[in-house]
Write a structure and sequence with these properties.
This protein is mainly α. It has 19 helices and five strands.
């Protein structure tokens, strides 16, 4: 079923503007034949979730990129407080809720139509023409003779002369005669139509996606932060997600069902509505958000992963948030980190854990950069001493239970300054969680940290020994070559003497 629209405008404001074209609309064909776009909108994010998760799981089980792992397989097994089966079960529950909500929203949305695109581009072209009406006044304010400038430009640059005159393009008038009188109809210039098409097809959708990203990042940051700052919300709801002290890809949506609905499903739905997206735009937005969330929990600092290169909010950044010393930092998700940086909740202790060193060295080797240019956590330890301690200024004082924990069980040790306060507040939160946290979490993490540092020292000694051996070999080769050359020179000298 289609509809036909004709533009009728008799107002003086629009009388000198090019007319808008007629159009006829029809239903937009499905992206995948046989699957309505509204159904695909709820299917695609789930399919993306499990496809990317299983890719990372396959990499895990095959041990393809051990040099980029943030944690060892042994840590995944020993430190996490939930079985993989429980993770899958709770993720599926959240996705059932997500599907029901998504389907309900889809049913309230109008069907996407096609056929109106040329009309909409013409509307933007009209807006461009209207905006040009301000040009003569602005030039006059600057003391420029508008008429004289247009007259000089017209022979060589008639279009530019038309812009100077406020969108008056005399050569674009179409003259028609009828019923005893002659009328002229203005038309659009090529540049107006090109710019209008770019605005309609590219800039407006980009702005919509930008709005949606800002909204979902804002929603998730403040709700996520609240779940950590409020002891009841953390221990009752959000602590379930932090049973995964070592995140992995398909645990990205392992949450309490209430959190899953409020943080992910509702947040993305509000972003979609406020951005004014259509069904197909929503499908791409929800799917991209899902990809990003899974990638942030993958457990690998992959230097060639585009999702980890686009923003600093990636697997390394989010891994800090899952550690006992950083759990009250790095709240931003899933796209950018601007709220953490604006409000002072970004981790300031640098790559404090020895676990990150292997991945950092591998990334450094891959990029061919010096140590200072590569970080896994996107944090500089030097910032700890210089940054404003807020909002953590009271965290060390309030960490009353942490004072009972020996220093050897509070590893790794953060650099002096703000990072000390952040680590104290984070470790106190672990101690507050009697069910899935407690002192044993700190003891276990400290033991793993000790083992990681020991492994690094052993690998460092092997690298040093290998380097020295390589240097000695080169020196020996050099000595042999030099000796050989000297020997040959002596022979040549003797031969010359005998002559």
């Amino acid at each position: 079923m289609g509809s036909t629209m004709t533009n009728h405008s008799g107002s003086n404001f629009y009388s000198d503007l090019p007319p808008l074209p007629e159009y006829q609309t029809s239903l937009l064909p499905s992206l995948i034949p046989g699957i309505p776009d509204k159904l695909l909108t709820v299917i695609a994010p789930i399919a993306a979730y499990w496809a990317l998760s299983m890719l990372f799981h396959w990499i895990d089980t095959r041990d393809y990129f051990p040099q980029y792992r943030l944690h060892t397989p042994a840590e995944v097994s020993s430190r996490n407080k939930v079985s993989r089966w429980e993770v899958v079960r709770d993720v599926v529950i959240q996705q059932v809720i997500q599907t029901a909500v998504g389907w309900g929203i889809g049913m309230t949305e109008p069907d996407d139509l096609t056929g109106q695109e040329e009309y909409d581009v013409a509307v933007w072209a009209r807006r461009i023409r209207i905006a040009q009406r301000a040009v003569p006044g602005l030039l006059a304010l600057a003391g420029i003779d508008v008429a004289g400038l247009a007259k000089n430009l017209n022979p060589s640059h008639p279009v530019l002369a038309g812009v100077v005159l406020g969108g008056q393009y005399s050569d674009l008038q179409t003259t028609s005669a009828g019923y005893g009188h002659v009328s002229s109809t203005p038309g659009f210039t090529v540049w107006e139509k090109t710019l209008a098409s770019a605005l309609y097809w590219y800039l407006v959708p980009a702005v919509q996606y930008g709005i949606a990203i800002i909204v979902v990042d804002t929603w998730q940051y403040f709700l996520h932060r609240a779940m950590h700052m409020n002891k009841w919300m953390y221990t009752t709801i959000h602590s379930r997600h932090h049973r995964l002290y070592i995140p992995y890809a398909y645990g990205a949506l392992y949450n309490h069902p209430v959190e899953g609905f409020l943080l992910d499903t509702l947040g993305a739905s509000i972003a979609y509505k406020l951005a004014g997206m259509n069904t197909r735009q929503g499908m791409w937005f929800f799917t991209a958000s899902t990809f990003k969330t899974v990638d942030d929990h993958c457990g690998y600092a992959l230097p060639w992963d585009p999702l980890q290169r686009l923003t600093s909010n990636n697997a390394g950044y989010h891994d800090v948030h899952h550690q006992s010393w950083g759990i009250k930092t790095n709240f931003s998700q899933p796209f950018f980190t601007f709220w953490d940086r604006l409000l002072g909740t970004v981790w300031t202790g640098g790559d404090v854990s020895a676990r990150y060193e292997k991945a950092r060295l591998a990334a450094q080797k891959k990029a061919g950069q010096s140590n200072e240019k590569i970080t896994i956590t996107h944090s500089d330890a030097a910032d700890s001493a210089t940054q404003d301690p807020r909002p953590y200024q009271d965290d060390k004082k309030n960490a009353t239970d942490l004072s009972l924990i020996p220093l050897k069980d509070q590893q790794p040790l953060p650099p002096k300054g703000k990072a000390v306060l952040q680590a104290a507040g984070s470790r106190q939160q672990i101690l507050d969680d009697k069910k899935d946290g407690g002192p044993q979490v700190l003891v276990q993490e400290a033991a793993e940290e000790k083992e990681a540092r020991s492994l690094l020292r052993r690998e460092g000694r092997r690298r040093t020994a290998s380097s020295l051996s390589h240097t000695d070999s080169l020196k020996g080769l050099k000595d042999r070559v030099t000796g050989s050359m000297l020997g040959r020179a002596g022979v040549l000298i003797d031969m010359e003497s005998n002559r």
